[in-house]
Amino acid sequence: MTIDPLQYKPKGDKKNSEFFETYKVKIYERRKSGGLDDMLETIRALVVQVEHGDALPYLRELHLMGPYRFHKAFQSPTHRIFILISQPEFPRLIVMEPLAEDYVDEITMLNRLYPLSSAKPNARYVGEIFKTKDVEATRKVLESHNIRFNYHHETKNPFFTESNIAFSFPSDYTCNRVGYCEVDIDDYEALQLGEAIELPGSEKEKLDAISEFSKENRLDELILGVDHMATRILAGEREDAICEFLTMSNYYFWGAYNIAAMNSSTNVNRNGNITDDKISPAKVFTANNIPSFVNSFEKLPMPTEDFVRNFGKRMHHVAYEVRDGDHRGGEKNVDYVVDTVRDRGIEFLAHVVGECKDDPDLKQIFSRHSEYSILITEYVERCHGYEGFFTKTNVAALTAAAGQDERYQHGKVFD
């Protein structure tokens, strides 16, 4: 059933400002009257960039931890581009790797501003690519709404300007981009990603061995697809970031919850035209309730804003849904998945949180940051038909665990 955002009542206990409530409605109305809702469909790809030399080990990590499998590779004048696929109806994963060790563009300069992202200055989640019926009409509509797009010679990476994908500038609020594409995401000739290249035989063998391990241990049956992506932003920019994304997409504001124990809120946006979020994953924005300089009075936890101060505004984690069920002896599937990949060297921040006994509930866990993408992987199992993306107890525990792993010693300020 399609959700009408103008009739939908958001969930949650986070109170939004009159500004937000007013412009949220204006944005929905303008999307409808301007034709954007009719043109946009689902997210067809997620884009990640890694450092020169990190793509192949990152592909191995992705094969082990999730459902994505290598499909094709291309080379542009500046990058190698790797395409990974899970289920046909789910978004592709596009991994970009600069050809040169000393490659520098706007992503590099942005990452170098922050102490814990500067070590991997080209590693960043870039953004999503939406399917649109008319890319030029989409660009025209959004530019009339003051959304900036990249044009030729404005960035070194031709993926953003020479392919048949129209990309926005990085957001001032999230530093993520949004892309729009009307051609089939699997029509690589039409996409114009560059010259097709082959992986070395030894690398194919390594990926095949991981895929076989996944089959033998049933990981490919249990890890289903991307459930949501969560971006961390500054306290004062929460509503702006949500409204900007609503302006640029066909999503609706599902709801927001205060996580008092962590002095933060979790804000969820969903595609109202689908029944399975894995087809077009939810977009989550997390922010402090009060900014760090005010919190110096209050002395509350603030791992969310500490992350932004240390890594910059960026994607924090990508969550995979795990099939609900018991694996053996009453062990939940998510516990089995975590134990299995942990045995292959993947580290996690804490234990799996959530009970999942007889009532609807959620079991979740965060991995440590990938050394290649700086992204955390989350596994989430919805038990007994649980509806939603988190429980307050779970997200407080996960946020606290991540905060301990994301701290930075700077002079006399330890955050």
Characterization of this structure:
The chain has 2 domains: 38-208, 2,3-Dihydroxybiphenyl 1,2-Dioxygenase, domain 1, CATH 3.10.180; 213-414, 2,3-Dihydroxybiphenyl 1,2-Dioxygenase, domain 1 (Roll). Helices cover 29% and strands 28% of the residues. It has helices at 18-34, 36-39, 55-65, 106-111, 135-143, 188-191, 201-216, 219-222, 238-248, 292-298, 303-311, 333-342, 392-405, and strands at 40-49, 69-75, 79-85, 92-98, 124-132, 166-167, 177-181, 195-197, 223-233, 251-259, 264-271, 282-288, 314-322, 326-328, 331-332, 361-366, 376-383, 409-410, 413-414. The strands form 4 sheets. An 8-stranded mixed β-sheet has the order 6-7-5-1-4-3-2-8. Strands 10-11-12-9-13-17-16 form a 7-stranded mixed β-sheet, sandwiched between helices. Helix 11 packs parallel to helix 13. Residues 411-415 have low confidence and may be disordered.
Mean pLDDT, as a whole number? Answer: 92
CATH architectural type of the largest domain: Roll
Instruction: Name the overall outline.
Output: globular
What is the name of the CATH topology of the largest domain? 2,3-Dihydroxybiphenyl 1,2-Dioxygenase, domain 1
Number of helical segments with 4 or more residues: 13
Which structural class is indicated by helix and strand composition? alpha+beta
Key terms for this structure?
about 425 residues, alpha+beta, 2,3-Dihydroxybiphenyl 1,2-Dioxygenase, domain 1, 2 domains, 8-stranded mixed beta sheet, 7-stranded mixed beta sheet, 13 helices, about 30% helix, disordered C terminus
In short:
The protein is an alpha+beta fold and 415 residues long. It has helices at residues 18-34, 36-39, 55-65, 106-111, 135-143, 188-191, 201-216, 219-222, 238-248, 292-298, 303-311, 333-342, 392-405, and strands at residues 40-49, 69-75, 79-85, 92-98, 124-132, 166-167, 177-181, 195-197, 223-233, 251-259, 264-271, 282-288, 314-322, 326-328, 331-332, 361-366, 376-383, 409-410, 413-414.
